[in-house]
Amino acid sequence: MNMPIGMITLLVIGVLVYFGIAQRILDRMRLTDKQALLFIVAVVAGSFIDIPLMSSPVQVTINVGGALLPAMLAIWLIFKADETAERVRAIMAAILVAAVVSLGSRYLPYEPENMFLDPKLIYGLSAGLIAYLAGRSRRSAFVGGVLGIILSDIVHMMTIIGLGVPGTTAIGGAGAFDVVIIAGIVAVMVAELVGETREKIQGGPVLGPNRPEGLYEFSEELSENRNKKNQSDEIKKNKTDDNSGKNKEGEKSE
Amino acid sequence: MSRITGCLFAALFALVLLTTPGFSHERTDGGYFTIVDESGTAVYLTGRAVDIGDQFLTEQNKRYEVVAIEGNIAQAKFIGNVNLSLYQQTTQSRLAAILAPKLAYAQTKGKVAIYHTHTDESYVPTDGVESKLGSGSIYKVGASFANSLKSQGLEVIHSDAKFDPHDNMAYERSRRAAMDLVKQQPSAMFDVHRDAVPPEVYGTKMDGKDVSKVQLVVGKYGPTGKQIEDYALQIKAAADKQHPGLVKGIFFAKGGDYNQDLLPRSMLLEVGAHTNTLESAERGIALFADVIPSVIGAVPAPAAQAGKAGFGTTEAGPSGASKSIGWILGALVLGGIAFLVLSTGSLKEAGSKLKQFTTNEFANFFGPKTKKYKRRKDDDEGSK
Quick check: A120 and B99 CB within 8 A? Predict the structure, then answer.
């Protein structure tokens, strides 16, 4: 590559930070830390494999790391969902994201300099918002981001076939750095940000018997395990500092 | 009730996101922006839709920032003269010399990758139309660039991938081809385009022949924006030395990254405008190719640019790469703190969550530290 040391360091740090964040996001997708790391390794390795799907009228390929693996994870998340309503919401989110991306790509300015955000992030952000609206869960957001972009690629493929424009569709072709994965990650981050902010505005999530029915959140699962663990922690904490107002927040935070 | 509030909040956010860019649509009326300085003199013309906050470097190395836009006229504020000689370091710093990968330097020549995101772009005087979906004559400009680079002994990969239609997702589609090119380990990568302004903006005469000038476009949005900015200045410094007047200027766009985050030596080039002839564009890019070997360090001479491209030097300050590293790490730390505070509610809670993260979070990788384990043993038993 013949590059000065500054550029190489920049590359290394950029990649480490990116995969670090990706790992933190993936371990919220029913994966353990180790599985999340293995998934990233698989995505990186899979980035080098393109599977041709068709060659005429347009050439269509799917990248293993950039589309196949994240799509499989998303579909697995749909199947593993606790209730049918959640599945429907996740699928709805994906379809809505695809619609927004397809319409947005047609009507938004086509030079990124006209936008205050890069298209990659705009679609990730909208995926996160839509998925949060539709499913209110990080997993729905991930499913919406990943499958939404893949669906929008299929829409693009049909558009260019319909118009008779020569072209290619390389679904997830940029591998680990493809907009498929970026949209999935950004979507979860947005769901997290919006969710946490909203919870904070309304003074914390409703826990216990008054929790709204059908509201599934990742924190619920966590709090089940951690509550037990926190109980003993809290007893200790209460011995030292007596701030009973914090108890509820402590429960929420984990 | 709360669900409705949440939905409204998210919908509002989505609305802001999706409509704001709509105010600054790409020019489709064939118009272009004339950017004037404080005294009202036109200093820059471009068919790119200009936004407040965008910056540019003129041919005379004066840097401006756009502060107001009224119709086709954009008002710019003079920021300062850029001393391009700082970007022509001839000696390597000691640290860089020690750390530089010798194997990489042992390679004789570099490899250059070329692709075109807007594969329809064409030149009206030659082609009759400004856009030919899937087969724009921009490919011929790319081929001329490739041939000229090859004649200097460089290896060239010229991608013929197509990304039409010319829409908002074009850069996301070309990102895939760009990544494919990056996998082949090029020393530099160029996305070749053309602009849309009157012919005199890019048209010039060199050695008695019509030549179209070249504009460099830097995406300031990506994490590596600062590094790309330095790289563009290095290219202009080298070009000004070899072919004065060939590089029209540098446009620093704040809104996109043009996939320049994939490789630290990525650059978007605009060769002439649709009003120039294809032949003049081909000549322009061929001359521009002369500059590349020195910029990518394939020849040791004038601009080996170790200083600015390494971590920086005392006289030139920190390099773009160092600044970009700073931005990435700064954003990571700030984002982390913001997330912790938002998700826990107070600095104190955030602190304890961070502690939990550093001690317990990766327990299933390494196993908890023995000391911590002892202290938490009874807690774990309690939860079983």
Answer: no
Full residue range of the structural domain in which residue B360 is found: 346-384
Mean pLDDT of all residues belonging to chain B: 78
- Residue A246: which domain range? 208-253
Whether B236 and B151 share a structural domain: yes
B382 chain-A contacts, CB cut-off 8 A? 228-229, 231-232
- Residues of A within 8 A of B344 (CB-CB) are 249, 253
Is residue B64 within 8 A of residue B44, CB to CB? The reply is: yes
ipTM attached to this prediction: 0.70
Q: Quote the number of domains for chain A.
A: 2
pTM of the model: 0.74
Same domain? For B77 and B137 the reply is no
What is the number of domains present in chain B?
A: 3
Determine the pLDDT at residue A32. 87
More confident residue, B229 or B317: B229
Question: Are the beta carbons of A116 and B255 separated by less than 8 Å?
Answer: yes
Does residue A173 share a domain with residue A54? yes
Mutate to test the interface with A, among B118, B163, B167, B254 (most CBs of A within 10 A): B167
User: What residues of chain A lie within 8 A of the CB of B164, using their CB?
Assistant: 160, 165-167
Closest CB to A111 among B48, B254, B332:
B48
Measured in angstroms, the CA of A17 and the nearest CA of chain B are apart by 8
The pair of structure tokens assigned to B76 is: 């710019």
Using the Cβ of B165 and the Cβ atoms of chain A, whether some distance falls under 8 Å is answered with yes
Q: Note whether B25 contacts A200, CB cutoff 8 Å.
A: no
Phi, psi (deg, nearest 5) at residue A174: -85, 15
Interface test with B, best of A5, A168, A222 (most B CBs within 10 A): A5
C-alpha to C-alpha distance for A152 and A102, rounded to whole angstroms: 6
Establish if B8 belongs to a structural domain: no
Strand spans (E) along chain B? 33-36, 42-46, 55-58, 62-70, 73-81, 111-115, 155-158, 188-195, 203-206, 209-212, 214-219, 247-253, 266-273, 312-313, 317-318
Optimal mutation site among B51, B343, B352, B380, interface A, most CBs of chain A within 10 A: B343
Q: Look at residue B267 in the predicted model and tell me its pLDDT.
A: 94
Of A136, A132, A124, A99, nearest to A185 by C-alpha is: A124
pLDDT greater than 80 at residue A39: yes
Inter-residue contact B43 to B81 (CB < 8 Å):
no
What DSSP letter does each residue of B361-374 carry, written as one string?
ITHHHH---HHHHH
Is B332 among the domain residues?
no
Q: Please tell me whether residues A169 and A246 are part of one structural domain.
A: no
Residues A193 and A216 in one domain: no
Whether A173 and A214 share a structural domain: no
Same domain, A89 and A190: yes
Same-domain pairing of A106 and A161: yes
Q: Domain boundary at A183, A201, A219, which? A: A201
Residue B177 counted as domain residue? yes
Instruction: Say yes or no: B363 and B248 in one domain.
Output: no
